[in-house]
Amino acid sequence: MQLLNNANYNFLRWKWHAIALSAIVILAGLGLIAAKGMPLGIDFSGGTLVVVQFDQPVTEEQVRNAVDPLPGEEVVQQYGDVSERRMLIRLPQTEGAVEGNSLEQASSNVEAALQKAGLPKFTIVNRELVSAIIGRDLQLRGIYATLASLAAITIYIGFRFRFSFAVGAIAATLHDVLVTLAFLVFFKYELSLNVVAAILTITGYSVNDTIVIFDRVRENLRSRRREPLDKIVNESVNQTLSRTIITAGTTFLAVLSIFLFGGEALRGFSFTMLVGIVSGTYSTIFIASAIAIILSGGKARAAAAASSGDVVQGGKKQKRAKAS
Amino acid sequence: MKDTRWRLILIVAVIGLSIWSFYPPETKIKLGLDLKGGVHLVLRVHTDDALRVETETTVERLRDSMQRAGVQFTKADVVSPTEFRVEGIQDDAGFRTASVDADTNYDRSSETGGFSFRMKPNIVNQLREQTVTQALETIERRVNELGVAEPIVARYSGADQILVQLPGVSDVRRAKEIIRSTAQLKLTLVDQGPFPNRESALQAFNNNVPTEVEILPGRQEGGGTAGTAGTVFYAVKRAAAVTGRDLRNAQQSLDEFNRPAVHFTLKQDAAARFGNFTQTNIGRPMAIVLDNRVMSVATIQGRITDSGQITGINHDEMVDTVITLKSGALPASMDYLEERTVGPSLGAESIRAGFISSLAGLAFVVLFMLFYYRLTGINAVISIVANLVILLGLMAFLSSVMTLPGIAGFILTIGMGVDSNVLIFERIKEELATARGARAAVNAGFDRVWWTIVDTHVSSLIAALLLLQFGTSTIRGFAVTLIIGLLSNVFTAVFVSRTAFELVLSRRQTAAQTLSI
């Protein structure tokens, strides 16, 4: 069976449109973050979070009214399905409170407030207290890990491919991280530790896709030195297109099953992965190669381009020669 | 053919070892806190406490030696945890001799009117380090006393932070109290009291409490049951006759009214000291102070040598006090920076949700591969399932922990397996189109994508390795699953899948031109 027979689309014709579209999404996301701030989960902001299981059904409104007298701005949300009768209550880090004891206090206050309001009997099924110190620490680590990951992957790609390709790959990856952040803001997902884990996974995944195409470009460059680079790149994208679509499609559906059946705890994680997979596939086809070509000087001859950074794979080259 | 046989034997051995390693999964695969339920705690040790004690002791000793040497001084006070000042010295030479001891750990500088002593930086570091290590050991002993299965007590990211993970603990509040209780026990003389409140205690000294006396809260004697009794205040001597360090053992017992009590015995040298102390103070009231709270006060009736009792507590307090006293005092106070508690019911639900989503993901991928690649799809399914089996086996072997994000890691590993297989299969298809025969196409397909697979796996590994630095067990679980999955995928997608192809091809008599792909 064949998904696409001799695909031959001129993707590069759309490169400027694609770059413009991505720029709009990213700028809108960044603008929203700049205006309202990135919503941070408790891992990074610090504070108190309790998930309460009620014996009888209650509404968000009832719970909100019950905890309203507590200091700070409370967040009350249905947790999971309505039939589970669970409510998530989150209190911010109170002013100047660094000590862990005040976090404990906040959680006791929630319990007391719920009892006072005469709500049905409840048990606490999940409780998270994070002090500002830990929150800041995790923030720094999250930023550091994402940047370090991008840098390490750039170095690796730069070592394996020529420089302009490395820039293309990393631009595509950075694009995916930014698009993902934008969609997190659009859909009001908070940045939690799990979400950062998903973003890091996406950096690896997005580069995967790009590498597959670049590998093919490199291979084609060797056998067809007289053709223009952009033609070879476009052909390489087409040659690997069915692989790109099948892989992205299956991974997307596998992650979709986490999004649907994995429960509340993995919702943010799987949403991030879903956006990242779509964005990763899009950027692989439209962004990565476009940037690589623009950086290589447009319609430069393949021969000139190839000689500037052919890859160090002695053994492989010989094998190739024998095969063809 | 012979080559293929060895490959088969190797594959069967690896799969067999993996299954043996993780079977039965209920006992062999360790579950993280988010699945099993339990609590994750991060404590901060206030190492300044230990520094202050060191400085206070040094000042105390310096005063002593100055008095013995007859060196006059007006003041010798602690300024900060690492600093003290001595003022009004007339006899410079005499002071230098008397302060030799203090000079070993402190840098002396002379200032107008006196001398300032500052703890040497390497001593500060050494003491802080020692304090955290001691606290860690003490917490370990207490956690063991709590009877928690497979607890984790370890240094955390910050130099003064300690991580404690207690799986399956239901009474988190009690566990937290036991871990944090400093368990500073001392037996000391009551100077005055009891007073109904702190103000009246201060008034008794005209609001000028001498340095050797401190005001501590305590429970009203005989005032109803424990816990409901009112709070009173005592003025007690700071210098203790006996401290927690002198304990030989502590055990649960009953007092003369059959109420819960803690019975403790003293070490030999302390017993002798305590004997002398009680002998000379017959008829005076003595307080038993635990964590700066007067637990009970009794008049010394006669010479007591090696044992004593803490009374006026309820049953739970008795149990917990024995645990904390036996495990020793903490060298410094601590507070909690982070707590994450998951109830066991939520954990069980997460396991179910994770299991269902993994199966759904796997089922979908298997169906798609069989539908799209037909017979060759079986190769892909074999290699993906083999990958999951090896992943489980290695996780059990390395005793790495399965967490909820780790289950997501399983699903991503399935995706990774699909990726590699699709990459190879699509290439084989292309090669088949050039009509050089099935075997040549298979060989070329595997050869040409090998470096692509290496590149993609290395870049994913880089991202996964950077995840490891997040201390929370859930994220670590995810990272470890991803790393193991990536490594074993190279083996299954390339080696196992290729062997399956070789088997199919070797059964054919003629060099076939086609392949069900």
Low-pLDDT sequence parts of chain A: 302-324
Distance between the termini of chain A: 26 Å
Series of H and E elements of chain A? HHEHEEHEHHHHHHHH
* Strand elements of chain B, count: 19
CATH C-level name of the largest domain in chain A: Mainly Alpha
Proportion in helices of chain B:
40-55%
Task: Report the mean per-residue pLDDT of chain B as an integer.
Answer: 85
Textual characterization of the structure:
The complex is a heterodimer of chains A (324) and B (517). Chain A has 2 domains: 11-39 and 135-312, Multidrug efflux transporter AcrB transmembrane fold (Up-down Bundle), CATH 1.20.1640.10; 47-130, 2-Layer Sandwich (Alpha-Beta Plaits), CATH 3.30.70. Chain A has 324 residues and is α+β, with helices and mostly antiparallel strands. Helices cover 66% and strands 9% of the residues of chain A. A 4-stranded antiparallel sheet of chain A has the order 2-3-1-4. Residues 223-228 of chain B have low confidence and may be disordered. In chain B, 54% of the residues lie in helices and 22% in strands. Chain B is an alpha+beta fold and 517 residues long. In chain B, a hairpin with a 2-residue loop joins β3 (75-80) and β4 (83-87). The longest helix of chain B is centred in the C-terminal third of the chain and has 54 residues, at 344-397. Chain B has 15 helices and 19 strands. In chain B, the strands form 5 sheets. In chain B, strands 9, 10, 11, 12, 15 and 16 form a 6-stranded antiparallel sheet that branches. A 4-stranded antiparallel sheet of chain B has the order 7-8-2-18. A 4-stranded antiparallel sheet of chain B has the order 3-4-6-5. Chain B has helices spanning 2-22, 25-28, 33-36, 47-69, 92-98, 100-103, 121-146, 172-180, 198-204, 268-280, 315-327, 344-397, 404-433, 438-467, 473-506, and strands at 30-31, 38-45, 75-80, 83-87, 106-111, 114-119, 152-155, 161-167, 185-195, 213-219, 231-237, 242-243, 247-254, 260-266, 285-290, 293-299, 307-310, 334-342, 401-402. Chain B has 3 domains: 2-35 and 344-506, Multidrug efflux transporter AcrB transmembrane domain (Multidrug efflux transporter AcrB transmembrane fold); 47-122, Hypothetical Protein, Haloacid Dehalogenase-like Hydrolase, Chain: A, domain 2 (2-Layer Sandwich); 184-330, Gyrase A, domain 2 (2-Layer Sandwich). At the A-B interface, α4, β4, α5, α7 and α9 of A face β2, β18, α12, α13 and α14 of B. β4 (122-130) of chain A pairs antiparallel with β18 (334-342) of chain B.
